[in-house]
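Homework help board

Subject: predicted structure for assignment chain

Our instructor gave us this sequence and asked us to write out the predicted structure in token form, then describe one feature. I got the tokens but I'm not sure how to describe them. Can anyone check?
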Amino acid sequence: MSEHSPLLPVPHATDVHAADAHPLVRRGRPALVDPATLVACALDLFVEKGYAATRLEDVALAAGVSKGTLYLYFDSKAALFAAVVRQGLVPALAGGEALLDSHRGSGADLMRELLWGWWRLIGATRLGGLPKLMVAEARNFPDIAELYHREVMARGCALIRRAIDYGHARGEFRVAGDPCTVQAVMAPLLLRVLMKHSFGCVDHAVPANDPSAAAQAESTDIAASIEFVIRALEHD
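My token output:
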């Protein structure tokens, strides 16, 4: 397991400093590395190239280790992808569940915190490329599709359903968390992240050489989407 906080995305490979790794060099045996480095490199390649086109050799090369060393930790590409999901996406969902369990305020504030938290920890990070990868490749790889559905989609839907039910029980939301309402709440941010990782490279609405303006525009759009969802849930 990585020593990184479970509420933060998997670190970028270049963010893992030499002091954070745990080399163990013995004569005749491969050097051991921090598995978080391998997971971070795998995430980069899965998002950039897709699941099918990413090879374990590519991950090993990006991490600066041999393929044999990689196999000490992950015996298949599916196992490596599972680690990316479990170390990157699942902890963010667990954080949302803990927030819901401790929340005592309004339903609108709860929904706002959950959706902003999802965007901050997933949508706005490299992890946001995973939903697009799954849309593109789930049908061809049912093993990773089942994993993603069980550990991410089903759990995320259950979280949003509970949040809607919370607001409905307080008399703030007009409907309970039925499947259609859950999908309607999640759709705007999911569509936003899919568009970002599909057409972001050709979207010239904000100059690419002005990261500050791009970040501000994105934040404004996300805020508008979240407030639209909350207004749709609330009573007139």
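Reply (TA_rk): Your tokens look well-formed. For the description, you could write something like this. Confidence is low (pLDDT under 50) at residues 1-30. That's the kind of observation they're looking for.
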